[in-house]
Amino acid sequence: MTTTTLFTPLQLGALELPNRIIMAPLTRSRASQPGDVPTEMNARYYAQRASAGLIISEATQISRQGQGYAFTPGIYTDAQVQGWRLVTDAVHAAGGRIAMQLWHVGRISHHLLQEGGQPPVAPSAIRSETGESFVVLPEGPKRVPCDMPRALETSEIPGIIADYARAAKNALSAGFDMLELHSANGYLLQQFLSTNTNQRTDQYGGSMENRARIVLEALDAIIAVAGAQRAGGRISPHFNRHDIRDEQTEEIHLYLAEQFSKRGVAYLHIAEPDW
Q1: In the sheet that 22-23 helps form, which strands lie side by side, from edge to edge?
Q2: What is the pTM of this model?
Q3: Burial category of 66 from C-beta neighbours within 10 Å (exposed 0-12, middle 13-18, buried 19 and up)
Q4: Is residue 272 over pLDDT 90?
Q5: Among 30, 112, 127, 234, which one is most buried in terms of CB atoms within 10 A?
Q6: What is the Cα–Cα distance from 165 to 183, expressed in whole angstroms?
Q7: Tell me: the pLDDT tens digits for 84-114?
Q8: What is the pLDDT of residues 11-22, one digit of tens each?
């Protein structure tokens, strides 16, 4: 009997996968309220897909500030950790493995989703003209244009890196096998990478190395928690939504790939340019 390569085992960092089928992250907007907490329904959904070699979870916000869509789950409260534990236990009981994708949306958000109705944050105060957020209005859930963001102060960035580290610790406590840094699809980290959304003049703007700095700091924070062999990253070099128009996209993403490789991460996940 012969088998195709797709169904043969694969060593992916610290994990041995039984096959090479990877379930990509899919935003489901099914977290319970209040608190954006996964429930038994989420556990059932993921357990039904546990025969994949590896499941990558839906994008999960590392903080309240990192949320851009209603009903998406977080990983920054005890209740969320407990909810995700239902998911990982169900996946493991079904023989599966699961990675958590860690997410901060940056400017692709709305004041209704932010603590105290604050504006979203971004590398620079440049609004996404085509981006949409998903919020709950008096008449019901609705997609709305994103708000004008405010530019992050340099002094705030270490706090965001700390949020990634805390989220990584919480994800491991919740039973995840691996962690994926979401630095793609026009969200916060790609907003720092892109020449048209990053107009900063500090150490996080200007040169290619400066624009990539926050991505590598976030990755290093995750590695410090989980180890490089349980860390991966997602990039989307030619993504063309959310008003991303990067004049150096190939150069900066090749630089990122080199830096990820130097750190010995388990994998690099490259997304298509558009949905």
Answers
A1: 22-23, 54-61, 98-103, 178-182, 231-235, 267-270
A2: 0.95
A3: buried
A4: no
A5: 234
A6: 15
A7: 999 999 999 999 999 999 999 999 999 999 9
A8: 999 999 999 999
The label of the residue with tokens 């957020």 reads 133
Residue 273, pLDDT score: 73
What is the mean pLDDT of the segment spanning 124-134?
96
Binned at pLDDT 50, 70 and 90, residue 2 comes out as low
Helices 78-93 + 157-173 axis angle, to 10: 40
Distance, in Å, from the CA atom of 172 to the CA atom of 100, rounded to the nearest integer, reads 9
What are residue 59's DSSP bridge partners? 101
Q: What is the 3-state secondary structure (H, E, C) of the chain?
A: CCCCHHHCCEEECCEEECCCCEECCCCCCCCECCCCECCHHHHHHHHCCCCCCEEEEEEEECCHHHCCECCCCECCCHHHHHHHHHHHHHHHHCCCCEEEEEECCCCCCCHHHCHHHCCCEECCCCCCCCCEEEEEECCEEEEEECCCCEECCHHHHHHHHHHHHHHHHHHHHCCCCEEEEECCCCCHHHHHHCCCCCCCCCCCCCCHHHHHHHHHHHHHHHHHHHCHHHEEEEECCCCCCCCCCCCCHHHHHHHHHHHHHHHCCCEEEECCCCC
